[in-house]
Every structure is written in structure tokens, then in C-alpha cells.
Amino acid sequence: MKRSKRYNNIVKSLGTEQEIGLEEAIKIVKRNATAKFDESIEMAIRLGVDPRKSDQMVRGTVSLPHGIGKTVRVLVLAKGPKAKEAEEAGADMVGFEDYIQKIKDGWTETDVIIATPDVMSDVGKLGKLLGPKGLMPNPKSGTVTMDVGSAVKEVKAGRIEFRVDKYGILHVSVGKASFDEQKLLENTKVFIETVLRLKPASAKGQYLQSVSLSSTMSPGIKLDRSLVMAELR
Residue 155 phi/psi, 5° resolution? Predict the structure, then answer.
């Protein structure tokens, strides 16, 4: 892959033998986020799990204290009073049969879908359309619930959903380059601590294998695992 001169210069400036903790990595990533737009700050964590085994699948949600700096579009699939509750909580789109049909027709212009349990028999039929896009509501992620008001507010406030990929890696956005260092530090710590709490009992060996931080247009910075763990204490 051909890289830009800017990208290659950043790689050279990073070196290869540095031992970098969270605080130092955040400073470097912010310094290198010089694009003309507000770049996202992204974290990748490689875990010592085998996602092919159901008892080693790591997934969950976490409410980052400072959000991710992105306006999240929320669709709520519900009927009656629950639809009204979703509207009052700030959902961008609320409905049922009309949105079921739109999704069948190929529409997926939303970031999160929340549904009440009573409509899941119909929503479940959309699995092949919503699943590959990560939009399928799921009780484990808090997106299938009767408390739609709270769910909408949490998502809008910065709750993110994460799931390990087939290589055992988690990829999430933890904020924007415009965030100050302290906010990014607090967001990254909360995310890593959440991941550590979700360690499967069946996972053997080293669980947190590697951590890297990057911005949208910059290379990833590999962090020293022992330094990261020390900063969490």
C-alpha cells in the first residue's frame, strides 16, 4: 500500500524501540492528528481468546465518561407508549412497521437500533440485513429492552458497543483529536478496565496481549502492555 509522505514521516518519528504508556501515546497521537477535520482517536486491543468458541466471545457495552464526540443516530422500533417514551428521550427515529419495511428495502441509515422485546419476532427476521452491519438489537448489548428511554439517553451520552472480531481484536473509537488529553485518558482507561472485567473464565494464558492507539489518518502506536496495566492501578 502506498503511503503519503506525511504518514511515512510520522512512522519514522515514532521509532521502533520506545516503551510507551497511555498518557504518552495520547500526547503523540494528538500531536500527529493534523488532518483538516477532527480525526477520531481509535484503540485496538488484541486479546488472548478464541472467538470461534462461544465461551470466549468478548462483547459488551461501555459508557465512556466523555462520549466519542460523534452524533449518534438512534432508531427505536417500538409500539404505543414505548414509542412515545423513545421520542421524549431524544431518539432520532421511532416507528415499527414503516421502518421494518424500509429496512427490508435496503435502508440502514442509522448508527444504533433499539427495540422492545415484543417486536423482536419481526425484527429477528431482519437478521441477515442488520447482522452484517452490526445493527441487530441484542439483549446483551442493552438494545433489546423495555426501558427504551434510558437506553436512548445512554447511547446518546456516549455508550458504545464492542465485539471481538474473528482475529481476537477489539476496535473502538475513544474520542476525537479535539478532546483534551485528560478526557481521552479517562475514556481509554474506562474502556480497557471494562474489557479486563469481561475476561472469559475459559481464556488461558495472557489475556491482554497488545494495545495500540491511532487517529483516523495516522499510524497506530503500539503501547507497552506493562506500562498500560500500571497506569490502570
Answer: -65, -45
pLDDT exceeds 70 at position 12: no
CA-to-CA distance for 21 and 222, rounded, in angstroms? 9
163 and 59 share one domain: yes
Q: Are residues 48 and 84 in the same domain?
A: no
Helix, strand, coil tally for the chain in percent (to 5): 40, 20, 35
List the Cα angle 115/119/125 in 5-degree steps. 95
- 188 neighbors 172 (Cβ within 8 angstroms): no
- Residues 176 and 150 occupy one common structural domain: no
**Cα–Cα distance, 215 to 195 (Å, whole number):** 21
Residue 88 lies in a domain: yes
Predicted local confidence at residue 219, as pLDDT:
87
Q: What's the pTM value of the predicted model, to 2 decimals?
A: 0.77
The angle, 0 to 180 degrees and rounded to 10, between the axes of the packed helices 22-32 and 181-197 is 130
Q: Which of residues 98, 129, 157 is at a domain's end?
A: 157
